[in-house]
Amino acid sequence: MKWCNLWRLGEIIIPSVSEKLVKVVFCTAYYPGDPQKRWRHEQLMNALRNVGVDCVMGHYIHEERDCRECGRVWQQPNEKASDLNLGLSLITDAWNDVFDRAYLLTADSDQAATARFLRETFKEKKSLVTVSPPGRNFSANITQFSEGRIALTREHIERSVFPATIMGNGPPGRRPREYDPPADWVHPDNRPQKKAEA
After folding, report:
1. How many whole angstroms separate alpha carbon 67 and alpha carbon 65?
2. CA-CA distance, 109 to 151, in Å (whole number)?
3. Largest Cα span, the chain
4. How far apart are CA 51 and CA 170, in angstroms?
5. Residues 111 and 83: beta-carbon distance below 8 Å
6. d(Cα 9, Cα 132) in Å, to the nearest integer?
7. Cβ-based burial of 35 (10 A; exposed 0-12, middle 13-18, buried ≥19)
8. CB 54 within 8 A of CB 85
9. Residue 181 burial by CB count (10 A; 0-12/13-18/19+): exposed, middle or buried?
10. How far apart are CA 139 and CA 23, in angstroms?
């Protein structure tokens, strides 16, 4: 399920009769020190960019941590700027009138500040809908500034799985073996349709 087409996911969750998806922004950062993990992440970024997703990259820094019991000291990598990039992207797009309604997919309660600022500053916007990842609770802090909520399910993610290779205007995205679905898995679009009961 990691090989997920976020543009398709957006199309699935919005009401297609009354709304049109115009932009998808994904904020992330490459984890340092593991070339294979980096390569897998790059393949996903290539695939997402080839379907029109705006990928905004943050970075990692190493912060010193120590154990109070044993005294051991180590460098802990911590992702930086992704949460800030997400908030700035949402506010910038509101300012530029890119959207009427925004769907914010995060479990990070820090984005409540973004949601509050959006509601208080852009009163003409229809609403912000908070979207929770599968198996995660909604952030109560974000929900209080939202007009709606959507809980993603496994079905949403399954319907959004990319094919093995994604071609476009940039480098192709090739699904890493680690992202292969189980051998017996069939994409929902290719499953037999249930007959309607009379």
Report:
1. 7
2. 16
3. 71
4. 10
5. yes
6. 13
7. exposed
8. no
9. middle
10. 23
* Percent of the residues in the chain that have a pLDDT greater than 70, as a whole number: 92
Token pair of 85, please?
């990039």
pLDDT digits (tens, 9 = 90+) for 14-36: 998 899 999 999 999 988 888 99
Per-residue tokens: 112: 């409540």
- Residue in this structure with the two tokens 């399954």, named with its chain if needed: 158
pLDDT digits (tens, 9 = 90+) for 73-118: 766 656 667 888 999 999 999 999 999 999 999 988 889 999 999 9
pTM (2 decimals)? 0.86
- Taking alpha carbons only, the member of 130, 166, 151, 150 closest to residue 46 is 166
Question: 3-state SS of the chain?
Answer: CCCECHHHHHHHHCCCCCCCCCCCEEEECCCCCCHHHHHHHHHHHHHHHHCCCEEEECEEEEEEEECCCCCCEEEEEEEECHHHHHHHHHHHHHHCCCCCEEEEECCCHHHHHHHHHHHHHCCCCCEEEEEECCCCCCCHHHHCCCCEEEECCHHHHHHCECCCEECCCCCCEECCHHHCCCCCCCCHHHCCCCCCCC
